[in-house]
Amino acid sequence: MENDPPVNNSLASGEWTHEAARNPRRVHWMELFFDLVFVAFVGQLAHGIHGDPGWAEFGTFVLLFFPAWWAWVNLASVVNLLPGLSSRALGLAMLAAMGAASIMAAAAPGAFGERAWAFSLANAAMRVVLLVLWLYQHRGHSDDTPWRIWIYNGGTAVLWLVAAFAPLHVAVVLWATSIVVEVGMVLLGGRLWADRGIGDINIEHASERLGLFVIIVLGESVFTIVSEVSDDWAPGAGLAGALGFLIVALLGWAFFQYGTATLSAGLERLHARSDFAGMLQTTLFCPFLLVVGLTVIAGAIATAIPRPFNPLPLGSGTSLGGGLALFYACTAIVSLRYGQPARTVLPWAVSTVVGAVVLIPVSALVSGAVSLVLAVVLLVLVTTYVEIQRRRRKAHGP
């Protein structure tokens, strides 16, 4: 008929039935979908460090977060090292991992109590997903017996499974044993078998994956701020929320203007000189500390919003100042590992870390809103300094 809509030739020819090719250099949308579920887990844990957290609350946060983080970096790594993995196979793996991560998130508030069994089972399931993927990756790259993979993910999956049926004090020991085995084997493998692992990393994909994950974490921080302001609709809460948003925005500016700008080049430089230990440090361990810093900062901001004119509790003051110090210390370490000269990095790094640490005792003497103002001023000063230095170096040339 004359008014019929045009027919899409690709659909008419049946091309829609063929699976779209996956670009191994770009992050697949299913990876981002998984990250959203994982960040929900981080958000669940973050509730435990609102208010006035002590060493027990901080310790609980780190002890529960690291096993999940380690599963995340393993999943990101094996996908990175499987450029031939189809979109459909990747999607199925991510859906399975999302199911495990969802259970971990739901069990997180009671992981050291009545939900320990669910947290253990979810971690066991995540290791089974990783086991299948690593065995698939090994099959295409080596004819050796994959004993390291069976120990690394198969053995630790068994530990997590046994932990689900053990008393809590035994379960915690099994959790710790699993993580020690995995971290130890990664460090050993980075020295002895780097050519079979991180030496084959796709740097473009790794850089994009990490950057997008940090975006989602920053988004979770913004969501926390908006939720707190929404629950306490008052001028003081709005002021504290606006200051909190400025802090998150300035941290995002620092990461994406200065951090990711050197991420790919830095990894290329480390790879060129076979510095696989440096690659492990800057892709597995430092980002963990950076995300911890961002999360505890958001917890401090959330605590200040309902009571902006009261001093922050010691725990929240520690979260604010300590989180800022951790964020910039990690950024400085990564910058130095990527080859930036110490004379460029240390002036802003040392002054910012010292200023952030000083903010901890100061926050107990002034109102929460003033503490946030001081944090904003500190970040504006360091951002201004870095921008001026970058413009000067650009004007004078390399």
Give me some keywords for this one.
2 domains; mainly alpha; 398 residues
Query: Radius of gyration, Cα only, in angstroms?
Result: 23 Å
Write down the domain tally.
Answer: 2
- Compute the separation of the termini in Å: 66 Å
Mean pLDDT: 85
Describe the global form: globular
Portion of residues in helices? over 70%
Oligomer: single chain
Question: How many strand units?
Answer: 0
Count of helical stretches: 13
Low-confidence stretches: 1-19
Structural class call reads mainly alpha
The largest sheet is: none
Proportion of residues in β-strands = under 5%
Question: What is the N-to-C order of secondary-structure elements (H for helix, E for strand)?
Answer: HHHHHHHHHHHHH
Structural summary, described in words:
The chain is mainly α. It has two domains: 26-200, no CATH class; 203-398, no CATH class. It is 77% helix and 0% strand. The chain has 13 helices and no strands. Helix 2 runs antiparallel to helix 3 (55-80) and helix 6 (147-163) packs antiparallel against helix 7. The protein starts with 8 loop residues before the first helix and ends with a helix.
